[in-house]
Amino acid sequence: MATEFHNLQELRHSASLATKVFIQRDYRDSTICKFQTKFPAELDSRIERSLFEETLKTLNCYYAEAEKIGGQSYLEGCLACATAYIIFLCMETRYEKILKKISMYIQEQNEKIYAPRGLLLTDPIERGMRVIEISIFEDSGSTSSSSSGSSPSSSTAQ
Amino acid sequence: MITRKVTRKWEKLPGKNTFCCDGRVMMARQKGVFYLTLFLIVGTCSLFFIYPLPFVLVDLFSTIKKKKNVLFVFSIPVFAVLLFVFVVAMLLRTSFSDPGVLPRALPEEANFIEMEIEAANGNVMAGQRPPPRIKNVQINNQIVKLKYCYTCKIFRPPRASHCSICDNCVDRFDHHCPWVGNCVGKRNYRYFYLFTLSLSLLTIYIFAFNIVHVVLREYRNIFEHVVSLTPHCTVLEVLVCFFTLWSVVGLTGFHTYLISLNQTTNEDIKGSWSGKNRVQNPYSHKNFIKNCCEVLCGPTYPSVLDRRGVMLEDSTRPTPSDASAASTYKSTNPVSQTTKSSAPLIPNEHTPEEAKPSIGAGTQKSTSSPKEEKPPSPTSPNAVAPAVIKESAH
Questions:
Q1: Any idea where the Golgin subfamily A member 7/ERF4 domain is (chain A) (predicted)?
Q2: Contact B297 A78 (CB under 8 A)
Q3: Are the Cβ atoms of B304 and A86 closer than 8 angstroms?
Q4: What residues in A contact B93, CB-CB < 8 Å?
Q5: ∠ CA B127-B133-B136 to the nearest 5 degrees?
Q6: Pick from B372, B392, B373: which is nearest to B382 by CA?
Q7: Which chain A residues contact residue B173 at CB under 8 A?
Q8: Fewer CB within a 10 Å sphere, N or C end of chain B?
Q9: Shared-domain flag, residues B261 and B361
Q10: CB within 8 Å of chain B, chain A residues 1-30
């Protein structure tokens, strides 16, 4: 994991940032955390639509699971209330556990799918759960055209 | 040896919050009224535990005939102590936690939104007023307007509002409460509600206890050797409890009503979901129990403000520990295009903060403080009573 992280940093150092795309929240199902699955035009030449949609659907599922109001959330709420919420000082909430899973999933997706294509996903929690930021990199050796490929950077991440 | 002081992210957060305990505690700037609340609660309860509680217990003990009554007598002070601890815990939890502050947009995101707005608005003729920055979204078959926040440079999520006292956008903004010294929003609303509920119970308990004690004393003609203290303690407690009862119980009732409808104080005051031509509340499940469960037993949302994250000294940008790092900002960092982001000064209801020198005059305040000054419940007395009148701030 550490070497892969190091490779992602190398990617950032060797490649230059061309642009960023922001995937906005989808509020059609009220205020639960859900991101739009519309495929941005800027990524058209960089990644397959199906891979992108798969990532987004999985993320949306994780968030839906975290925000699900059901038996487990009631139990957690009632137990915490009975202890005047002091239990939260020692226990991790369900939401926090799922956020950790999301963080690991994004890292894994970055390493396996996005970094080889010169892209980088930012965990939404770092942007206030408002957007998924996708950084589009260009190789430092290539021309400044944003439509050019990024093959040298793909090897560093693998 | 150079000792590098670690800079945590809370030190660089915009907004008018104060932070304590190295970022663990987050409050509004004005904390005076919060100290008053704490003093009134702790002071009155301490007085109660000194007098009349011990005297009544002693009196009850002496008249006990059955063993099971001993348990009942013991439960009286235990219940009072537990309730007091719960009230203070809820107050501190409400006051010290992040209400659900939305961090401001970083420059790239702000520019991206600007470009989207300009693309959506099309070409505006010179001299013509640009259209207001509003996004329409459909939530549960109702059209809800998302407003643009000029301070935070984001389109506010539904139910979010900008608090001008704290200068932050808060998710599911209810109101700014000076009595707890913090905003009440998505993350701390349930603690606030439990605080008012438990405080109501505690107040009723102390009030009833004092009344019962006075009545008992009259009936039994108990000679009080602490004659000089008795009337003062009781009178003081009864006075504080009397005024607190009217306000806090009323406030608890009002918030119970709001919870049952899944509304916020902000929405209620603005009349967002009332009236014939208005949109019906799209967030309500139309079921009292479901609404209560969602608000009180829903998931505990994490704070999206990474207050205790470490900032590297060589960069003004935060650097989180995982791979999706913000060090990308080092590579291309468009110097703040403030002219672009604040240029279309739209004289609509939300005039940008940058255009107005005094923040107090900003229309974003219209969503929070002036309206919060009015007591929301018709049964509550007006604000000037000497004791704990919490509704005045709401």
A1: 21-133
A2: yes
A3: no
A4: 85
A5: 135
A6: B392
A7: none
A8: N
A9: no
A10: 4-5, 8-9, 12, 16-17, 20-22, 25, 27-30
Asked if pLDDT for residue A107 goes beyond 90, the answer is: yes
Q: Is A151 on the interface with B (CB under 8 A)?
A: no
More confident residue, B388 or A86: A86
Contact A69 B296 (CB under 8 A): no
pLDDT tens figures, A11-42 = 556 668 778 889 999 988 878 889 999 888 88
Shortest Cα distance, chain A CAs vs residue B63, angstroms: 34
The answer to whether residues B279 and B344 belong to one domain is no
Alpha-carbon distance B59 to nearest alpha carbon in chain A (angstroms): 32
**Mutation to test the B interface, candidates A8, A16, A99, A127, most B Cβ within 10 Å:** A127
Contact at CB, A30 and B282, closer than 8 angstroms:
yes
Helices B32-50 and B229-244: angle between axes, nearest 10 degrees: 130
Chain A partners of B144 at a C-beta cutoff of 8 Å?
A: 27
Structural domain tally of chain B? 2
DSSP 8-state assignment for residue A132: E
* pLDDT bucket at B38, cuts 50 / 70 / 90: very high
* B181 and B265 co-located in one domain: yes
B153: exposed, middle or buried (Cβ count in 10 Å: 0-12, 13-18, 19+): buried
Q: What is the DSSP string of B96-159?
A: HS---EEPPPPHHHHHHHHHHHHHHH-PPPTTSPPPP-EEEEEETTEEEEEEEETTTTEEPPTT
Domain that residue B231 falls in: 2-102+174-310
| Cα–Cα distance for residue pair B249/B254, rounded to 1 Å | 9
- CA–chain centroid gap for B149, Å, is 20
- Fill in the amino acid letter for A84: A
Q: 3-state class of A91 per DSSP?
A: coil
